[in-house]
Amino acid sequence: MTSSSDRSPAVDVRSSMTYEIRTYGCQMNVHDSERLSGLLEDAGYVRAAEDADGDADVVVFNTCAVRENADNRLYGNLGRLAPMKTKRPGMQIAVGGCLAQKDRDTIVKKAPWVDVVFGTHNIGKLPVLLERARVQEEAQVEIAESLEAFPSTLPTRRESAYAAWVSISVGCNNTCTFCIVPALRGKEKDRRTGDILAEIEALVGEGVSEITLLGQNVNAYGSDIGDREAFSKLLRACGSIEGLERVRFTSPHPRDFTDDVIAAMAETPNVMPQLHMPLQSGSDPVLKAMRRSYRQERYLGIIEKVRAAIPHAAITTDIIVGFPGETEADFEQTMHVVREARFAQAFTFQYSKRPGTPAATMDDQIPKEVVQARYERLVALQEEISWEENKKQVGRTLELMVAEGEGRKDGATHRLSGRAADNRLVHFTKPEQDVRPGDVVTVEITYAAPHHLLAEGAVLDVRSTRAGDAWEKRNVEKAAKSAGVMLGLPKIGVPAPLPVATGSGCGCD
């Protein structure tokens, strides 16, 4: 028998274990993945190289259940990892997010090599569940039915040094017939205003200069306490935070978009002249079938008020084509709203059945070829409008926050990329002076395309920022750490303002 004095000292094997997270779906999932990364690193795991492609000790799938084929995509990816796990003793696979919340035990039955299944309400349990699965050598399935802790109380590995999500609420009280999100993320739960502002101030202290307020229905904030003006008050409070240069939010709902919010946007200098306002359909009968609580007149009235208060605002939207029962006349009403609203950009979706939603069992499902034809007509119209609206920017002098990863051809064209205040993407000539993501440049727009602008002349001004300092510091630290452990550099930064995994979101706002 070996005595305790003969034993080797205990070693935390996780300190040398790597993890990879694959994220699908909306901004909420992207933000949740930042939390999952923070939790794993807090528990001693190290992020795998960017090109790991499953070659990690722990692979986490943060799933989305919005699309009809979301489960097929998940099981296909899980299937590709099965032989890798067989060859790699100790490798673990975890599945979380909306699909995990919905399918629960089904995942382990279809993919018995999965070690952990966790839901949207208990992401904080992931490290514990991984350890329990390792010790007990059996799959752990734990799905909480209600929120255990507000996600923002969990450790976070922010993907960007200069721009950050700040969650102000979770869940949704709407009952849209095409959307399964409320069933998976629960009723809306608001976060305390003081906690939100404290997090923003802490982020600004770390160098972040742009934040995006995030909620499934962000402008319904305050419903917990019965204060209909809570969201506009929050926007104004953000305006008093020194060092916070840009404030954005997504995604609002027309039902809750009140005049005080428009006033707060117009009167608060660091709230950006940008609005993402989901339309879904321009037809009143279709909006009724979707259980959307507004109609075309109300929607266009909001757009008119925003334009009157903020003339240079860029307005974007979500539109679903081919909802059950949609007639040609209904579709023409959507085209009418697009022409009237003149969106800077529209994220268009072909309707697909979401299992578990009322719309999935409705009569008059539209044939695929009809949906495709309407979709192409809508895209063509919006492309034309986007280009016309972008041409209006030519000759304007704009301040850009320099971004990372936005310009795929920047290396070949000797350009950099950034986002204007209204969130338009601008590619600009690389100046002789060093410019870092998070810094601010002033340029003159010389050319417009439907989805981007060009500033081909010399940069008029470069302003180094604390955000740029933060980005540089993070890169130096990561390079030093990577050189030490030989894991390779992970992907640094996020396209400003922040990543959008599928269109602008779930398409459910």
In words, what does this structure look like?
Helix 12 runs parallel beside helix 13 (368-391). Strand 19 and strand 20 form a beta hairpin. With 509 residues, the protein is of the alpha/beta class. It has 15 helices and 21 strands.
Write the SSE topology:
Layout: E1 18-23, H1 27-42, E2 46-47, E3 58-63, H2 70-87, E4 92-97, H3 98-103, H4 105-110, E5 116-118, H5 126-136, E6 140-142, E7 163-167, E8 169-170, H6 181-185, E9 189-190, H7 193-205, E10 210-214, H8 230-238, E11 246-250, H9 259-267, E12 274-276, H10 284-289, H11 296-309, E13 314-321, H12 328-341, E14 345-350, H13 368-391, E15 397-402, H14 410-413, E16 415-420, E17 425-429, E18 440-444, E19 447-448, E20 453-455, E21 461-463, H15 466-485
Parallel strand pairs: 1-2, 1-3, 3-4, 4-5, 5-6, 7-10, 10-11, 12-13, 13-14, 17-20
Antiparallel strand pairs: 8-9, 15-16, 15-18, 16-17, 18-21, 19-20
